[in-house]
Every structure is written in C-alpha cells, then in structure tokens.
C-alpha cells in the first residue's frame, strides 16, 4: 500500500515558535489518508517509512540545489538532513507518518482518547504524532514574551544539563516548555512579567521536582486528580512526561547551582 499524504503539520519547537536561535531541527507530521487508526499505522508504518526513504534517496530535488542525507529510521519516524548547496544550510527533519484523528474536533478527539484507553502501551504510542497538532496549538498561542522565556530555559538546559544518552534520559524540550508554562500560570498568566523572577521560579520548580503536579483540562478531563510528582501531556492523558526522565537528581543539582549564582541573588 502506497502512502497518500492528506496534509503536513509543522510541529516541534519550530512549529511552536520556541526553537533556539540557529536551531534547524524540524518535525513534520505526515497525515496519511490511507491510514484510519493506530492499529493500521502500526501494521504499515515500517513499509511506509521504507518507501519514503527510497524516494528521498533518489534525490528528487538535486536540480534545485538540495540533497537529502538519511540519518536514521526508527519504528516511528525517518530522520534526514536537507542540505542546500547554494546557502550552505543544513536542516534536520524528523518525518512522522500518522493517521488523521481530526483532533481539533472535540467529539473526534474524545473518540480517539476512548480508543487509546483500550490499546496496550505499545499501540497507544502510535497515537503520539496524531495529537502533535494539539501540542503545537497549546503552546503557539502563548504570549511572545513567554515563548522568549521558554527559549531562555531551553538554552540553560542545553548549556548546563548533561546530554541525554541511551541510559540517561534528561528533560525533553517539550517538558521544559510545559514546566515554564506551569510556572507562568501559577503567577496569574500575565502578559508582562519580570523575566528574572519567573526564571528563578522555574529553577525552584526543577529543584523541588518531586512536588510537581502539572496537568491541564483543555483537551480532556481526568477522572481523578494525579498525585505528585506528575507532568501530564495536555494533548495526551497517557503521556506521563515526568517518568520519561530518569536523572532528576542531576536536574535538581544544576538548578540549585544556578540559584546560587550571583545574578540570581537579586
């Protein structure tokens, strides 16, 4: 079965307006008309990714000055570099095929969450890209100044936190976005705020991570309030982001050192 793309959604930090300066990573969600749900996606995605990789390997845009270099393929995505010969620019692209769950429609979204409840954890993971549009919309609408603060916290994480490895999972870019938004909401969601003061609050949140209890009811309603420590994906009630990190001790240690810096003593 050949994949037929209905539309493409630009997601990730670039899609949400929170990418660091000079960042050239792009998440592209391919919404396929030929796939109806996570089970069908799971059964066909390996073949779809292979077909897309084969197409890109033929270098269809070489005449326009572009080259595609395949970097890796996982069970969910194809990652490649787009290299422009004319401007010497390299863009890393994560291409994620998914099905159209029509998640911007309230009833369709509830239907998806209901189906996810019946899936096992592995099948449920194939719904992640289907709700990427909700993740993007949740953040892209936030004030420009807040997105600037998110970029500042991401820069802090990139500069001071250890890198993620196969055995060490550090906070993702998305987790950092959500913790920053949570701290902003705790002070009343102001359109104007003192950046240094709010940055300090975020460092305190990372230091006291065991007390974090973050969730939203914009897209779904929880049947019971979660207990800390919790960071729930606002677009996916089954995506428990706090548990994705297995080295919170290092995060807390770096946050403590940051709070002890002279610049933070104002």
Automatic annotation (TrEMBL):
<dbReference type="InterPro" id="IPR043519">
    <property type="entry name" value="NT_sf"/>
</dbReference>
<feature type="domain" description="2'-5'-oligoadenylate synthetase 1">
    <location>
        <begin position="113"/>
        <end position="264"/>
    </location>
</feature>
<dbReference type="InterPro" id="IPR018952">
    <property type="entry name" value="2-5-oligoAdlate_synth_1_dom2/C"/>
</dbReference>
<feature type="domain" description="Polymerase nucleotidyl transferase">
    <location>
        <begin position="5"/>
        <end position="53"/>
    </location>
</feature>
<comment type="similarity">
    <text>Belongs to the 2-5A synthase family.</text>
</comment>
<dbReference type="GO" id="GO:0001730">
    <property type="term" value="F:2'-5'-oligoadenylate synthetase activity"/>
</dbReference>
<dbReference type="InterPro" id="IPR002934">
    <property type="entry name" value="Polymerase_NTP_transf_dom"/>
</dbReference>
<dbReference type="GO" id="GO:0005829">
    <property type="term" value="C:cytosol"/>
</dbReference>
<dbReference type="Pfam" id="PF10421">
    <property type="entry name" value="OAS1_C"/>
</dbReference>
<dbReference type="GO" id="GO:0005654">
    <property type="term" value="C:nucleoplasm"/>
</dbReference>
<feature type="coiled-coil region">
    <location>
        <begin position="31"/>
        <end position="58"/>
    </location>
</feature>
<dbReference type="GO" id="GO:0003725">
    <property type="term" value="F:double-stranded RNA binding"/>
</dbReference>
<dbReference type="Pfam" id="PF01909">
    <property type="entry name" value="NTP_transf_2"/>
</dbReference>
<keyword id="KW-0175">Coiled coil</keyword>
<dbReference type="GO" id="GO:0016020">
    <property type="term" value="C:membrane"/>
</dbReference>
<protein>
    <submittedName>
        <fullName>2'-5'-oligoadenylate synthase 1-like</fullName>
    </submittedName>
</protein>
């Amino acid at each position: 079965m050949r994949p037929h793309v209905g539309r493409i959604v630009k997601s990730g930090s670039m899609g949400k307006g929170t990418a660091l300066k000079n960042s050239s990573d792009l998440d592209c969600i391919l919404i396929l008309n030929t796939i109806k749900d996570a089970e069908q996606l799971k059964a066909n995605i390996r073949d779809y990714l292979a077909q897309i990789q084969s197409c890109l390997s033929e270098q269809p845009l070489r005449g326009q000055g572009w080259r595609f270099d395949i970097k890796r393929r996982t069970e969910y995505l194809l990652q490649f570099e787009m290299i422009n010969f004319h401007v010497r620019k390299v863009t890393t692209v994560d291409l994620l095929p998914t099905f159209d769950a029509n998640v911007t429609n309230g009833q369709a979204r509830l239907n998806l969450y209901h189906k996810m409840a019946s899936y096992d954890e592995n099948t449920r993971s194939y719904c992640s890209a289907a709700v990427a549009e909700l993740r993007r919309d949740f953040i892209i609408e936030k004030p420009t100044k807040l997105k600037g603060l998110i970029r500042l916290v991401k820069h802090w994480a990139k500069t001071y936190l250890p890198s993620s490895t196969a055995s060490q999972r550090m906070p993702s870019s998305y987790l950092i976005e959500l913790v920053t938004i949570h701290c902003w909401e705790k002070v009343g969601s102001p359109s104007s705020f003192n950046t240094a003061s709010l940055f300090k609050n975020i460092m305190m949140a990372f230091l006291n991570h065991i007390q974090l209890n973050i969730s939203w009811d914009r897209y779904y309603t929880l049947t019971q309030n979660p207990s800390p420590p919790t960071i729930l994906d606002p677009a996916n009630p089954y995506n428990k982001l706090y548990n994705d990190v297995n080295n919170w001790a290092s995060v807390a240690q770096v946050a403590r050192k940051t709070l002890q810096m002279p610049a933070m003593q104002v």
